[in-house]
């Protein structure tokens, strides 16, 4: 097993897969609790790029199973435009071209810009690529670095961020991450919090895309959805789920034989990363359940010794906020996590940092009476990192403290809704 390094922050975690070295780093950074005020729309952090119809909200994600492809996505705000990416290993050359697709959507009274997704594949490992999108005076140039080949000894550093939003605290998180040396982000759901605005204002999806572009245009963010992406609003005539998220954020789900962009897997360096959807069906015989059963069998620890699972709602959580919300997924999947010796399970949703010992509760059922988790060397470490900075503030009320300490004889409750 490779060594593992953490930069455990109050807002994001850095996970370093290091060849033969076990290292731990804990940051002294502590973010402020309040105010969690959204940055105004005219903030410089949301600035639109120069030039008519210039590509904006640029973001890339892994485009295949093994890291030799990226999906490059962007929005042209004013009118349709070619979904073309020009790229090269040499700066200013751009002698290769990939062709993508374009889509858009409406949500109540909001009409999105033109959203482009372009797969760039056949890349070499460990290589810097430059790319250009847009034309003429509106063209924009970026770059990204491909990961090392899949290998038991491949070192890599992931950032883990969840529940980011677009407040001044979100800005603090992103700025801190940009200085961290992370090479790719594992995002555990709840992106823009646009659903907190009247009519789920899509303008806040656009501002969020521009806000995170300073990282997402240059390195892949491995996306997962949260409850704020569901956006089920029958009162507005919006009865499909995850509509803005699915239009805006591509995932390479077909490469891992998934039938849905909501759950999938990628392999990167020495890690096999499984993305699970907390808000899609996962009980026995559902597509997600059947896919995960197969995907776990495809894990090859000789090539990817790190097995990492991402979900939104944590399976273990000692906070009052969202207590037990991950219990149904725990009942469905914990047995497999122990059987296949998952190393780490990252979740968001609860706006706090929390890390478990290696424990499992797989013997629990209605009649066993084994209510409490026990130490289990085959079990994952569970890490919650939902304090990315969104407008709902921090979770701070411990369910263990509030339910076991008599105090005034009544149980404390969470002070504000948060997710
Ligand atoms: Fe959430």
Automatic annotation (TrEMBL):
Residues 157-353 form the Calcineurin-like phosphoesterase domain. It comes from the Eukaryota. One of its GO terms (molecular function) is acid phosphatase activity. SUPFAM superfamilies: Metallo-dependent phosphatases (SSF56300), Purple acid phosphatase, N-terminal domain (SSF49363). InterPro entries: Calcineurin-like_PHP (IPR004843), Metallo-depent_PP-like (IPR029052), MPP_PAP (IPR041792), PAPs-like (IPR039331), PAPs_N (IPR015914), Purple_acid_Pase-like_N (IPR008963). Its EC number is 3.1.3.2. Transmembrane segments: none annotated. It catalyses: a phosphate monoester + H2O = an alcohol + phosphate. Keywords: Glycoprotein, Hydrolase, Iron, Metal-binding, Signal, Zinc. It is an enzyme of class 3 (hydrolase). Residues 1-23 form the signal peptide. Residues 55-146 form the Purple acid phosphatase N-terminal domain. Belongs to the metallophosphoesterase superfamily. Purple acid phosphatase family. PANTHER family: ACID PHOSPHATASE RELATED, BIFUNCTIONAL PURPLE ACID PHOSPHATASE 26. This is Purple acid phosphatase. It comes from Triticum turgidum subsp. durum (Durum wheat).
